[in-house]
Amino acid sequence: MSSESDNTSGLLGWRLRAAREMAFVGREEELAVFNAALYGGGCSVLYVHGPGGIGKSALLRRFAHEAAVAERPVSMPVSMMDGRMSEPSPVAFEAEAELVLRDADAVLLIDNFERIQGLEGWLRERFLPRVPIGALVVIAGRNPPDMRWQADPGWAGALEVLPLRDLRAADAQALMDSCGVPAESRGPLLAFAGGHPLALLLGAAVAVKDGGAGRRWMPNRDVVATLLDELVGELPSAAHRHALEICAHAHTTTEDLLRAALPEDAGTLFQWLRRLPFVESSSLGLFPHDVVRQVLEADLRWRDPEAYAVMHDRIHAHLADRVRTASDVDVPGTVAALLYLHRGNGAPTSYDEVEFQEEVVREEDIGTLLRVATAAEGAASAGCAAFWAERQLEAFRLYRRTETGEPVAFSAWLRLAELDEEELTADPLVAMAWAHARATTPLRAGEHVVVSRLWALPPYRSNSPVMDLIQWRVIGNCVRSERMAWSYIETNKAWVERLRHYGMRDISERPLGDDAYTLFVHDWRAVPAQAWLERMNHLPVGGPSAATAVLSQAEFAEAVRKALRQLSRLDALAASPLTRTRLIAERAGQDPATALGDLLRQTIDDLREDPRAVKFHRALSVTFLRGTPTQELAAQRLGLPFTTYRRHLKAGIERVCADLWHRELYGANAPA
User: Fold this and answer.
1) Nearest 5°: phi and psi at 368?
2) InterPro entries per the record (predicted)?
């Protein structure tokens, strides 16, 4: 391929290329690697891999443009662009790619390599070693390279592997700009497509055509069908399709979960799943790309709602049994996996985050418990914590920030069969619960009452991952307890609507400084754990109350921090208490989650106008707007020492919290 003369500007092909170039966004890191190799400072072979629709072909077209600008001869044969050689053999390949064997300046671009994957070994061992030094070969396909490339020390400096990921948030916004997507449709489109280029482009076409749909925008059947064809393709059998649908419905899929929901040859199907280019793995199991998850879910719900319900019930039953049988340390994670099935009801879904960790409390932790309890609720409440720690230390759990080890909260699961006078007077909340149980339905032989207590530092009392972790522990304890007659759960207002939704009753509310803690009761003899789980499984979809949220400054700041971390996830923003504050009420007519995301982005952008805050803007932008996966990489991209970057990021977050708090108190037009 060579540079084309100006007289081609009157051809349709020129117009198509120009439109594609206009729509190309992002990929700065990949282009930097390619250009380094192009100008002699990098690898000889660049291997790009990623799922269907992620933008590999568009990237190769941009590579071809960059090579032409550098006046390098480019070989990008149509058969290799399509991956459809009439005869996928070494002889046919050499005939197509012979330019790169005889010209040290040549650039060979091979697309859709998965269609000729059988040639990979020959390419590595026989063809590429004959390429002259200076030539550049780019291979793009869905599958990662065979491990033998990286196991061979000879390829260590000659091969560069680039996994192609979703577009960053800012690049996804730029792509929607280039497509002319209406502002009111962007939030729902981003929630569906994330940074997946093909999903964004297909969704953008629908959003532009149906611009009046606004916040009600949803992918139509054509978009879902096209994405299924492109991302998933033809599947070997119905069993393979069922396995993939299970993987999309569960948060993570293990072989035993697959066996419970689909008994047919689960081991073979699990091995097939883990090799798919759009399925990734973690310590918890397999999970698909977000767009694949959404289109598979949407398609099965529409195509076969009865099969969808059967699959859901089987997975729910398996995960409920796991909650009952899991080791103590695994209880929160297994509860969170169960609740993920109810993500449409606003259940938290970020349990794979490791921001906080849970520990069993030891004797040496009692001093820490008292300090946290005093800071959380005062000396009287700390006295209650000390009293119960002396009698039931095994009932306590400690929650720390993983990064710093800072203790931020404690919980206690107090089992009570009989209370003496000292115990009744030591803790008013326990006395209230005991009086309610005796007055309603007294205990029978062998039964006990449980009172769940918590002490959390002010910044963590509201919607925060640590509160979710504590509540997962509480729900797990409820399901696993034997001979429990009544449970009394002390919780803050972040979980009030959720526990009501799960069928528990609140019997009292007590103020604690700026917060109100509510006591929820459940009679486990009237509705045993199994019946309660079944009832929860068939609750209608319904979110928390739409009443205006009145947050303390600490709650507000914690909600802002959490929303910043979840800025690219519209479903997570929709669950934020900030969507029910004055901030969002002022933006009437806009979807609350979309309005919150737009407000956070605008607040970050506004910092550029303050010379004192430019460095804060840069740290916030690279971390939250550009979707950098780790803070270490963010510091590297900014060219800053990690400690300096963290200082700028912390100050930037505090500035955003302060600016938004000012607006919450005084309105959008109040002077700063």
Assistant:
1) -65, -40
2) AAA_16 (IPR041664), P-loop_NTPase (IPR027417)
Sheet with 396-401, edge to edge strand ranges: 356-360, 396-401, 407-416, 448-456, 484-492, 515-523, 505-512
The beta-strand segments (E) located in 480-575 are 484-492, 505-512, 515-523
Identify which of 286, 263, 261 has the alpha carbon closest to the alpha carbon of residue 276. 286
Please give the full DSSP string across 280-307, using - where no structure is assigned. Answer: EEETTEEEE-HHHHHHHHHHHHHH-HHH
Q: Using alpha carbons only, give the angle 354, 357, 358 rounded to the nearest 5 degrees.
A: 145
Q: Which residues contact 492 (CB under 8 A, 6 or more apart)?
A: 456, 461, 462, 467, 515, 516, 517, 518
Specify the CATH architecture of the domain 6-163: 3-Layer(aba) Sandwich (3.40)
Give the pairing type, strands 136-141 and 107-110.
Answer: parallel
Q: What is the pLDDT of residues 338-362, one digit of tens each?
A: 988 887 665 555 554 568 899 999 9
The structural domains of the chain, with segments of one domain joined by +, span 6-163, 169-219, 229-325, 356-537, 553-666
Confidence of residue 3 (pLDDT cuts 50, 70, 90): very low
Query: How is domain 356-537 classified at the CATH fold level?
Result: Aminopeptidase (3.40.630)
* Contact in structure between 87 and 98 (CB atoms under 8 Å): no
Closest by Cα among 99, 113, 101 to 48: 113
| Cα–Cα distance list, 102 to 68, 131, 133, 212 (Å) | 18, 8, 11, 57
Dihedral of CA atoms 242, 248, 252, 255 in degrees, nearest 10, equals 10
3-class SS shares of the chain: helix, strand, coil, % to 5 = 60, 15, 30
For residue 453, report the phi and psi dihedrals to the nearest 5 degrees: -110, 155
Phi, psi of 79 (to 5 degrees): -65, -30
Same fold, 6-163 and 356-537: no
Q: Are strands 484-492 and 407-416 parallel, antiparallel or unpaired?
A: unpaired
CB 392 within 8 A of CB 427: no
**Do residues 308 and 237 make contact, with C-beta atoms less than 8 angstroms apart?**
no
In this prediction, residue 351 carries a pLDDT of 52
Q: How far apart, in Å, are the Cα atoms of 327 and each of 333, 352, 437, 452, 576? A: 11, 17, 30, 20, 31
C-alpha distances out from residue 122 to 118, 137, 153, Å: 8, 15, 18
Q: For residue 229, with 0-12 CB atoms within 10 Å meaning exposed, 13-18 middle and 19 or more buried, which class applies? A: exposed
Our CA angle for 23, 29, 30, nearest 5°, is 70
Q: Select the highest-mean-pLDDT range: 189-198, 228-237, 418-427, 533-542.
A: 418-427
Alpha-carbon distance 287 to 247, whole Å? 6
Q: What pTM, to 2 d.p., does this model score?
A: 0.67
Helix axes 290-303, 305-325, angle to 10 degrees: 120
Distance CA 14, CA 10 (A): 7
- Tokens 């759960």 correspond to 489
Q: What are the DSSP E strand ranges found in 422-569?
A: 448-456, 484-492, 505-512, 515-523
